[in-house]
Amino acid sequence: MFTIANGIILKGQDLVASKENIVVDDAKIIEIAKDAKEGKIIDVDGAVVCPSFINGHMHIGDSIIKDEGYGLSLSEMVKPPNGVKHKALANAEDDELIEAMKSSMWDMVESGTTHFIDYREGGIKGIKLLKEASKDIPIKPIILGRDDNFYGDDPDLAKVKKAIKRILGIADGIAPSGFGEITEEVANLITEECSKQGKISSIHVAESESNQMESLERFNKTEIEKGLDNNFDQLVHITNPKNDDLELIRNSQSNVVVCPRANATLNVGVARLNEMLDMGMKPLIGSDNVMLNSPNMLRELEFSLKLMSVYYKSYIDPAKLLQMATTNVCAHNINNVIGKSCIEEGNSIECNIFKSFSKNPYLNICNRCETKNILYSINKRSIV
Ligand SMILES: [Zn+2]
């Protein structure tokens, strides 16, 4: 049993700041109160106690080709099967992949991340490699697999069905790349089976303007409309919404992940965070391909904070920005699979304790803190 004493705690899903102590027993928060004190006292002297980070969208496999292909277009970089990334993955040795993924996971642990949602390439083998790589690291990968049988204009649906069941036997869900690569029939088979098994279905949509235009031309629907019509739990990017796309998402059961740094690297646009937040949406935020970005959420937060000022000539609410990287996931059904918690009595303890530089605890983290300013990371897997 121990007490985190004298911290500024960011409590609940809304990260409400209050100066209180947290008593922890067996990795559970048993009391939060001003003068609660039990067991060993960890006096953090005004430091900020924030729920740990969840990286909402990643491709950890391309850790093997950091910064390769810089300057190429989105499809030249990442479109299956001929993008720079897929050629590199096809030629990589297993040991090389495992070592690169481990190194990225340790980067995440050190920078305060306890969960990440990964789009895992390479079918069943790819999923097994990530499980092997993560087994001794205090982080929880949420693995969304895929299979080569999904692709093409006329896929063998019997093979697709088999592949879906095989993947869901060992993964947390399924994420094909995008509607450019799969038919709606395949999309439907994926989402139906995921929903039946209580797992996560996710897909990239509206990453680039050209994806959206092509979808409108071919199907008279935006990629976002297709994602919603096919009942995907999670839509990644929505950087280029059209018409009433954002409104449709807000009124749906689907959740959204935005990736501002990846969008900037690939110059495909700026995700409209302020509008989404004003509409009451609760997006997650992710660093996307490790080939494009470091998986460090502190870098994602600072970049997004400043980018919104430039884009809107107005400010983003830093508390809401921080919720995107920490507690927004708790509001969505997918958290049944993910199991992320906020700081409340009865929950597991999963927090980072940041050195305090400023009176605004949210800007302190988003605008000031670097990895070296994390005094402690405390979660059920470890106290680092
Ligand atoms: Zn992605």
- Which structural class matches the secondary elements? alpha/beta
> Main sheet: which strands, in order across?
13-12-11-10-9-8-7-6-14
Alpha-carbon distance between the two ends: 16 Å
Low-confidence stretches: none
Quickly give the CATH architecture of the largest domain.
Alpha-Beta Barrel
Shape: globular
Largest sheet: 9 strands, parallel
What amount of the residues lies in strands?
Answer: 15-25%
Rg of Cα set: 20 Å
Total strands: the figure is 17
Number of helices: 15
The CATH topology of the largest domain is what? TIM Barrel
CATH superfamily of the largest domain: Metal-dependent hydrolases
Hetero compounds:
zinc ion
Number of domains: 2
CATH class wording of the largest domain = Alpha Beta
> Into which percent range does the helicity of residues fall?
25-40%
Q: Mean pLDDT score, rounded?
A: 96
What does this protein structure show overall?
The chain has 2 domains: 2-51 and 341-383, Urease, subunit C, domain 1; 53-338, Metal-dependent hydrolases (TIM Barrel), CATH 3.20.20.140. The strands form 2 sheets. Strands 13-12-11-10-9-8-7-6-14 form a 9-stranded parallel sheet. Strands 1, 2, 3, 4, 5, 15, 16 and 17 form an 8-stranded mixed sheet that branches. The radius of gyration is 20 Å and the shape is globular. The mean pLDDT is 96. The two termini are 16 Å apart. The chain is an alpha/beta fold and 384 residues long. The chain has 15 helices and 17 strands.
